[in-house]
Amino acid sequence: MAAGIRQAKLLAANMLNRYNFRNPPVDPRIIAEAEGIRVFYTDFTNHPGLTNHQNSLGFYDPTEKTDLGNGAIIINHNIFSEQKIYVIAYELGRALMYDSYENKQAENTQHEYPVQYQMNNYENNLVANKFAVNLLMPAKWVAKFYFMIEDVGRIPTSRELATYFNVSIDNMRNRLQGMDFE
């Protein structure tokens, strides 16, 4: 799984560079659509085709045909905007890291695939989460904003940082837990 996490971090950094994101907030929908993945918002509660996703925040459907190409991220429009952003980033990670592998495998190409493609679904979810975290809240950016606020004489709150990055407070708290600012 460590290889998968490393690759998720690298892929997130590559996406930020490719699409010229230099500061927060990052709009993962722009990246998804540039990569040929359409993002749709719908109500999951009474949609006959989404009975398996009633309790879901969103999902990636690689079979959905769109004007951008194949694949769509379907988001439950009843969730908070910060959740929508995170779910798009998470599903984008799944799409970029796993769907491309499955397509290459189906084409019988002679590529060597990274270790994470043989992980179980739980591990795939952890790697997709790591991609989303690194896409929306890169450690360098979080540290930069943290120290900018600290330089004015106070410790920044999770709420302030979440606002800069347009993510939920919980997402920012989770991101800060692994960072050492002492």
In CATH terms, what is the architecture of the largest domain? Answer: Orthogonal Bundle
The SSE order reads: HHEEEHHHHH
Q: What's the helix count?
A: 7
Number of domains in the coordinates? Answer: 2
CATH class of the largest domain: Mainly Alpha
Q: Major sheet: size, sense and barrel closure? A: 3 strands, mixed
Radius of gyration: 17 Å
Overall average residue pLDDT: 83
**Beta strands, count:** 3
Poorly predicted ranges (pLDDT <50, ≥5 residues)?
101-119
Strand order of the largest sheet: 1-3-2
In quaternary terms, these chains amount to single chain
What structural class should be given to the helix and strand makeup?
Answer: alpha+beta
Percent range for helical residues? 40-55%
Cα separation of the termini: 29 Å
CATH topology of the largest domain: Arc Repressor Mutant, subunit A
Report the principal-axis shape.
Answer: globular
Would you write up a description of this structure?
The chain is α+β, with helices and mostly antiparallel strands. The chain has two domains: 2-136, Arc Repressor Mutant, subunit A; 138-182. It is 52% helix and 12% strand. It contains seven helices and three strands. It has helices at 2-18, 28-34, 81-106, 121-136, 139-150, 158-165, 169-177; strands spanning 38-42, 58-66, 69-76. Strands 1-3-2 form a three-stranded mixed β-sheet. Helix 1 (2-18) packs parallel to helix 4 (121-136), helix 2 packs parallel to helix 3 and helix 6 (158-165) crosses helix 7. The longest helix has 26 residues, at 81-106. The chain is globular, with a radius of gyration of 17 Å. The two termini are 29 Å apart.
